[in-house]
């Protein structure tokens, strides 16, 4: 296959040149790069040449490869497959590292700079949201089963529509709120001189990974002790919101105090609303002594129908 | 064979004559044996093939496809590292399995709209869009499996879970009870593990080793969701 070899070699040459350091390229020390940063995957052996390497070749002579992959100023067009492949250019160890970083936020460590290293990925946010949506639906259902075992008058049904609701709400939160945040930060860019805003993908990444801590929280909510549930909720919310705040703090620090405080409190409030909404909708607390349908907060679209007949198959004897 | 009228194979060297003038007179000398047979065996076979699939009975056409599907079912039930599923992929098996599963999982129309199990369309959408999403994820991570091959593998590996659904329905006929539930739980867990093992046997090799877990985790989630739907099925 001489033709394919030539093609591969040629791509590698081109890619080496393209990875050359230009005078404006972001280095790892300078952390305030206002231009949108993307990165390209030098997937030489990946086997699909969708004609994406059609950038203008850099004419710089400093062809030094740094230890981390350099960012490229121009990416393949959004209609090519390689463009989207560049967002999935992560290894298992990197994803696990980022998840660990989101679980343990530290005040000095900015999630974007420290863990993402300005190379956001879409794998984490997408699959964490999918996992969270399904885990919510499954554990909500399980709560109903466990409640029914204590109180056989409750009618059990699989309630499949909760999967749809969970999916839509989680994905909307994880993608629309970063969009709004990114838009707001860009709008306020003029006020800040030094620090530029994050790119949209980095914001999505931060939100996506911050939702990870909700997964064990939701599983632990199966324990039907109310104060324990609120404790776990507060703990998880604290960790998650702390991660978000520490990440956003360097960006809003330069802004006026009012705007900074308002922005951070809005972010935390939205996060808290998400956690509370999940708790109230999917985990209607059903105290074992009560036979009547529970009186919950107003925003519950489903009520458990009170049926006197014994439910079948999932009930204990 | 006629004698060569000039030096053999060399029409252009006679200088006063125009080029290629005597080309039509060239004949092969007897010193150079050029003989043999040129047969094109494909031609006759294609004709046979064409007429055979056109004229064969409907029974043999259907049986051929059914046998291919059945062979792949065997490969799923006894997973070894073989290429049959990948090489001759087809989507008949996944379609049959998905329709069977959705027909068995759907709730009655008498059920209320909000409570109850999934509708036929919901199961269908989950299976097919789930498979498409996993395939896209695998390709975006840099795997070298083709789109339809991956769909084929994921669809065929639903077979253990369909068998679990059948067993669950049979067990549910015996009436409710905790033993009932334990049996169903055990069956679903075993079939879930079987599905995962079968699909990773086929799919894991197509990924680079440092991303294998990233590609296998969505498969795990996919079969987990289907297993959950099977386990929570309650006949009304």
TrEMBL record, chain A:
InterPro entries: Yip1_dom, Yip5/YIPF1/YIPF2. Residues 51-60 have a biased composition (Acidic residues). One of its GO terms (cellular component) is Golgi membrane. The gene is YIPF2. The keyword Membrane applies. Coiled coil: none annotated. It holds the Pfam family Yip1. Keywords: Membrane, Transmembrane, Transmembrane helix. Residues 103-275 form the Yip1 domain. It is a multi-pass membrane protein. One of its GO terms (molecular function) is small GTPase binding. The keyword Transmembrane helix applies. This is Protein YIPF. The chain crosses the membrane at residues 122-145, 165-185, 206-224, 230-251, 258-282. GO terms for biological process: vesicle-mediated transport. It comes from Aotus nancymaae. Residues 17-69 are annotated as: Disordered. Its main location: Golgi. It comes from the Eukaryota. It is found in: Golgi apparatus membrane; Golgi apparatus, cis-Golgi network membrane; Golgi apparatus, trans-Golgi network membrane; Late endosome membrane. Belongs to the YIP1 family. Residues 25-38 have a biased composition (Polar residues).
UniProtKB/TrEMBL annotation, chain B:
Pfam families: Yip1. The keyword Cytoplasm does not apply. Its main location: Golgi. InterPro entries: Yip1/4-like (IPR045231), Yip1_dom (IPR006977). The gene is YIPF6. GO terms for cellular component: cis-Golgi network; COPII-coated ER to Golgi transport vesicle; endoplasmic reticulum; Golgi medial cisterna; Golgi membrane; Golgi trans cisterna; trans-Golgi network. GO terms for molecular function: identical protein binding. Residues 76-229 form the Yip1 domain. This is Protein YIPF. It comes from the Eukaryota.
């Amino acid at each position: 296959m001489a033709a394919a070899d030539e093609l591969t070699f040629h791509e590698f040459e081109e890619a080496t040149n393209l990875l050359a350091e230009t005078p404006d390229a972001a280095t790892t020390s300078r952390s305030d790069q206002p231009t949108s940063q993307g990165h390209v995957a030098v997937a030489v052996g990946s086997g699909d040449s969708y004609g994406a390497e059609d950038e203008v070749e850099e004419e710089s002579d400093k062809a030094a490869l740094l230890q981390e992959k350099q960012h490229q100023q121009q990416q393949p067009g959004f209609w090519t497959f390689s463009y989207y492949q560049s967002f999935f250019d992560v290894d298992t160890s990197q994803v696990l590292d980022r998840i660990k970083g989101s679980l343990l936020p530290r005040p000095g460590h900015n999630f974007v700079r420290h863990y993402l290293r300005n190379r956001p990925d879409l794998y984490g946010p997408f699959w964490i949201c999918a996992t969270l949506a399904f885990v919510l639906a499954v554990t909500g259902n399980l709560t109903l089963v466990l409640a029914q075992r204590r109180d056989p008058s409750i009618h059990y049904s699989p309630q499949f529509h909760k999967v749809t609701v969970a999916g839509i709400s989680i994905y909307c939160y994880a993608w629309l709120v970063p969009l709004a945040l990114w838009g707001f930060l860009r709008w306020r860019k003029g006020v800040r001189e030094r620090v530029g805003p994050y790119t949209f993908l980095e914001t999505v990444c931060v939100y996506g990974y911050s939702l990870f801590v909700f997964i064990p929280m939701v599983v632990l909510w199966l324990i039907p002790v109310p104060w324990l549930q609120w404790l776990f909720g507060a703990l998880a919310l604290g960790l998650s919101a702390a991660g978000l705040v520490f990440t956003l703090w360097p960006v809003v620090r330069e802004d006026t105090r009012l705007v900074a405080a308002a922005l951070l409190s809005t972010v935390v409030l939205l996060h808290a609303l998400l956690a509370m909404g999940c708790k109230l909708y999917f985990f209607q607390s059903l105290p074992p002594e009560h036979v009547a349908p529970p009186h919950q907060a107003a925003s519950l679209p489903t009520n458990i129908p009170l049926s006197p007949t014994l439910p079948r198959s999932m009930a204990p004897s | 064979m006629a004698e060569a009228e000039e030096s053999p194979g060399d029409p252009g060297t006679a200088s006063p004559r125009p080029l290629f003038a005597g080309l039509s007179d060239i004949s092969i000398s007897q010193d150079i044996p050029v003989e043999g047979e040129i047969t094109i065996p494909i031609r006759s076979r294609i004709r046979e093939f064409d007429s055979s699939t056109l004229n064969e009975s409907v029974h043999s056409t259907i049986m051929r496809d059914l046998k291919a599907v059945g062979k792949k079912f065997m490969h799923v039930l006894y997973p070894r590292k073989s290429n049959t599923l990948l090489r001759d992929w087809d989507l008949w098996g996944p379609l049959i399995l998905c329709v069977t599963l959705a027909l068995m999982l759907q709730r009655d129309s008498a059920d209320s709209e909000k409570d109850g199990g999934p509708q036929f369309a919901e199961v269908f959408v989950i299976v097919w869009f789930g498979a498409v999403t996993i395939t896209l994820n695998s390709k975006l991570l840099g795997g070298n499996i083709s789109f339809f091959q991956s769909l084929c593998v994921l669809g065929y590996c639903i077979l253990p879970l369909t068998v679990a659904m059948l067993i669950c329905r049979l067990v549910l006929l015996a009436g409710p009870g905790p033993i009932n539930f334990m049996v169903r739980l055990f069956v679903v867990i075993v079939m879930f593990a079987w599905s995962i093992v079968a699909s990773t046997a086929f799919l894991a090799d197509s990924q680079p080793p440092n991303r294998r877990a990233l590609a296998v985790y969505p498969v795990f989630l996919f079969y987990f969701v289907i297993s959950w739907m099977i386990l929570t099925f309650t006949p009304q």
